[in-house]
TrEMBL record:
Name of one Pfam family that matches: Esterase
SUPFAM superfamilies (UniProt xref): alpha/beta-Hydrolases (SSF53474)
The organism's place on the tree of life at top rank: Bacteria
Organism: Paenibacillus faecis
Protein name: Esterase family protein
Length: 242
């Protein structure tokens, strides 16, 4: 993607008080070509926001999809994270998990909706995340069905506790997921252990579909790296925003 039109991106940096966590939280907000405050836009909320922008090149992908492929313009909100407490915020067994969920639903989303013309229906919000950010996005949607229904999961970290929480649900028919995992992720080591991400994603898919969720699922050659996920982002965004 060398066309200069794709590189002319409007990205606003914001910092909000996140009382749920007792700290400030930084956001990166992508505004689409032709942005107009009197219009309204679908919105994508990304965990690991700085990585989605820096390594996933999500803003450049978005420009191309809007300018060349005719996708309806949309806004992207990248929620930045302190990597030293990432697992504590993203994993359901983390001691900051509940507070981080409240930070998003009670503080970040209201801030975005006060200051940017984003739509407010569940079908117009997309949650996106890689690895633990992908499984966190699912947890957040399961906890808040009136807010979220669409999830992009890039090699989601569906550990045993997450699988058990999916299994405990009886009806997930309101959810729609785009899931992709790399076939070279069968022995990937994280800060909590070594996992077969392919098997974890297969099991999560099965449990989700059994509970009525709509799942688009791919296994492709790829490793647990942004070099793989970056290539999958255009299809994932197109799936929900076309």
């Amino acid at each position: 993607m060398t066309d200069s039109r794709y590189l002319k991106r409007t990205i606003v940096r914001e910092e909000i008080d996140c009382d749920s966590l007792g700290e400030k939280r930084k956001l990166r907000i992508y505004l689409p070509p032709g942005y107009n405050e009197i219009l309204s836009y679908p919105v994508v909320y990304c965990q690991d926001g700085e990585e989605f922008f820096n390594f996933g090149r999500i803003a450049t992908h978005a420009n191309k999809l809007i300018l060349d492929d005719g996708l309806e313009p949309f806004i992207i909100v990248g929620i930045e994270v302190d990597t030293t407490v990432r697992t504590e915020e993203y994993a359901p067994f983390g001691h900051r998990f509940e507070a981080y969920c409240r930070c998003i639903t009670e503080e970040i989303i209201p801030f975005v909706e006060r200051n940017y013309p984003v739509r407010r229906e569940p079908e117009d919000r997309v949650l996106a995340g890689d690895s633990l950010g992908g499984s966190f996005s699912l947890h957040l949607a399961m906890k808040n069905p009136k807010l979220f229904s669409k999830i992009i999961s890039l090699s989601g970290a569906y550990y045993d506790q997450t699988l058990a929480m999916i299994e405990a649900e009886s009806d997930l028919s309101h959810l729609s997921l785009f899931m992709v995992v790399g076939l070279q992720e069968q022995q990937y080591t994280t800060d909590t252990g070594t996992y077969n991400f392919v098997e974890l994603n297969r099991r999560a898919r099965q449990l989700l579909e059994e509970r009525g969720a709509k799942v688009v699922y791919y296994e492709k050659d790829g490793k647990h790296l942004w070099g793989f996920w970056q290539q999958e982002l255009p299809e994932a965004l197109t799936h929900f925003l076309q």
